[in-house]
Inverse folding.
C-alpha cells in the first residue's frame, strides 16, 4: 500500500474528493480512524472521510486498484474486524436525513445517527425502531438486525428496510430492494403504536435477589402482549460520580421494559405484578417518557470506551438456564462483565427467518454480554472470546452455554 498512497496517485484521489484523505502520521489521521469502541485498534493505510456517495465510490475504486481491503465506519460502536493496512471509509460526516411523512419512510445517509432521525421524524409524529441508544448509526445498527425497545411488537429494524443504495466491490453504485438485486438486499437484512409518549424504565434490585427476579420474570414475561418489550440485566455499575448514588459501585439486577401500546399508561398496570411480587427495589425508574428519551431505559454510555461484546439466542428461561446465569453473573460470581442482558423476543422471533443472520425464529430471548477492554491486553484475553463461559472463576459444575442453552448464534448490535 505504500506505493499506492504516495505521490501523484494519492494527490489524484484527494483532488476527486469533497471530503478528505489522511495517511498515517498526517494531521487528522488518528481522529478519523478512532472508533467509539476504544478496544478496536486499527491502523489503516489510508482514511477517507467521505462527504457523499461519490467519495465512497472513489475510495472503493482506489482500494481496488491498489489491491487492498476496505473498511467502513460511521461511529465505530461495533467494529467487526479492524481495518489494518487497508482503506478505511469514515462516513461520520454523511448524516443527511429526509422524512416522507405521507409514505412514513425515511431516507438516511450512511453516517446518520438515530438522534438525527429522531429530530426529523418527531415533528411528523413518527419514530423509527432505534436500539439502546440514539447515538449509534442507523445503517450499521440496521444491517446488524436492529433490535430495540419497540422490537417485540414491530420486529427487527432490518425487516422494515424497503431499499438501499450501496457501493459494490467494483466501486459501482446500485440500488437494491426485494425486486432489484434481491440477493444483495437479503444480505443487508441482519448481515448484523404511540410514538409520542411511552411507558418504560427499570426495577433495580441487589444482585443477591437475581434467582427470585429471574424466576418471576420468566413467569411474568410469558403472557405479556407484544406492545411490551422487556428484558432483565445483570449490571456491575462502575463507581462513577455521574451515576445515581444508590447504584454507584454496586452489582445489581435490573428488570427493564418499554410499553408502546395505544394507551401508554396501560404499561403501569402490566408492571404492577412485578412490583408487588418482588417488593421494594433499590430504584424504580418506570414512568411516562417521550420517545426521544428512550435511551434512559438501557442507560448505555455515550462517551467512548473499550469493550468486548458477544450475543446469543436463548430458547427459553428454564430453571436450568436461571441457575447457570446466576452462577455466571450473580452474587459471588466474580463476573468481569459490565452487563449481561436478556431481552424478550416477540415479532422479533416471528420475522427473523428471512433476515440473513438473525436465526430461525425459535428462540424466546436474546442475550448480550459486554465486558470492559480498556487495554489491548484485556481485549485479547477477554473471556468473551471463549465458547465456554466463564473463565475468571471455575463454576461448581460445568457450564457450557453455547452447547446447553443456546439454539443459534447471532451478532446482535448495540450500535
Amino acid at each position: 500500500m505504500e506505493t499506492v498512497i504516495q505521490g501523484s496517485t494519492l494527490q489524484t484521489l484527494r483532488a476527486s474528493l469533497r471530503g478528505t484523505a489522511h495517511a498515517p502520521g498526517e494531521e487528522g489521521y488518528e481522529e478519523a480512524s478512532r472508533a467509539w469502541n476504544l478496544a478496536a485498534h486499527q491502523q489503516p493505510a489510508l482514511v477517507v472521510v467521505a462527504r457523499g456517495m461519490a467519495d465512497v465510490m472513489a475510495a472503493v475504486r482506489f482500494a481496488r486498484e491498489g489491491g487492498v481491503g476496505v473498511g467502513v465506519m460511521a461511529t465505530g460502536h461495533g467494529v467487526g474486524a479492524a481495518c489494518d493496512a487497508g482503506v478505511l471509509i469514515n462516513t461520520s460526516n454523511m448524516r443527511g436525513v429526509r422524512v416522507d411523512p405521507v409514505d412514513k419512510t425515511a431516507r438516511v445517509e450512511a453516517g446518520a445517527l438515530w438522534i438525527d432521525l429522531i429530530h426529523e421524524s418527531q415533528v411528523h409524529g413518527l419514530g423509527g425502531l432505534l436500539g439502546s441508544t440514539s447515538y449509534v448509526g442507523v445503517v450499521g445498527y440496521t444491517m446488524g438486525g436492529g433490535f430495540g425497545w419497540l422490537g417485540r411488537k414491530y420486529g427487527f429494524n432490518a425487516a422494515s428496510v424497503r431499499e438501499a443504495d450501496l457501493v459494490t466491490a467494483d466501486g459501482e453504485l446500485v440500488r437494491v430492494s426485494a425486486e432489484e438485486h434481491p440477493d444483495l438486499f437479503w444480505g443487508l437484512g441482519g448481515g448484523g403504536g404511540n410514538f409520542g409518549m411511552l411507558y418504560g424504565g427499570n426495577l433495580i434490585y441487589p444482585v443477591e435477589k437475581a434467582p427470585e427476579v429471574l424466576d418471576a420474570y420468566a413467569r411474568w414475561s410469558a403472557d405479556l402482549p407484544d406492545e411490551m418489550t422487556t428484558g432483565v440485566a445483570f449490571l456491575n455499575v462502575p463507581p462513577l460520580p455521574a451515576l445515581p448514588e444508590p447504584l454507584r459501585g454496586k452489582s445489581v439486577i435490573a428488570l427493564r421494559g418499554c410499553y408502546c401500546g395505544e394507551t401508554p399508561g396501560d404499561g403501569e398496570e402490566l408492571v404492577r405484578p412485578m412490583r408487588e411480587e418482588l417488593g421494594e427495589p433499590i430504584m424504580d425508574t418506570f414512568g411516562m417518557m417521550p420517545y426521544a428519551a428512550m435511551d434512559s431505559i438501557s442507560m448505555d454510555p455515550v462517551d467512548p470506551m473499550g469493550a468486548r461484546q458477544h450475543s446469543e439466542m436463548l430458547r427459553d428461561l428454564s430453571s436450568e438456564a436461571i441457575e447457570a446465569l446466576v452462577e455466571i453473573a450473580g452474587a459471588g460470581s466474580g463476573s468481569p462483565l459490565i452487563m449481561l442482558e436478556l431481552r424478550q423476543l416477540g415479532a422479533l422471533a416471528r420475522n427473523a427467518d428471512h433476515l440473513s443472520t438473525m436465526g430461525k425464529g425459535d428462540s424466546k430471548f436474546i442475550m448480550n454480554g459486554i465486558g470492559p477492554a480498556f487495554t489491548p491486553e484485556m481485549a485479547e484475553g477477554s473471556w468473551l472470546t471463549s465458547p465456554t463461559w466463564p473463565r475468571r472463576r471455575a463454576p461448581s459444575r460445568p457450564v457450557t452455554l453455547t452447547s446447553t442453552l443456546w439454539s443459534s448464534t447471532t451478532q446482535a448490535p448495540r450500535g
In short: Confidence is low (pLDDT under 50) at residues 382-415. The two ends are 31 Å apart (CA to CA).
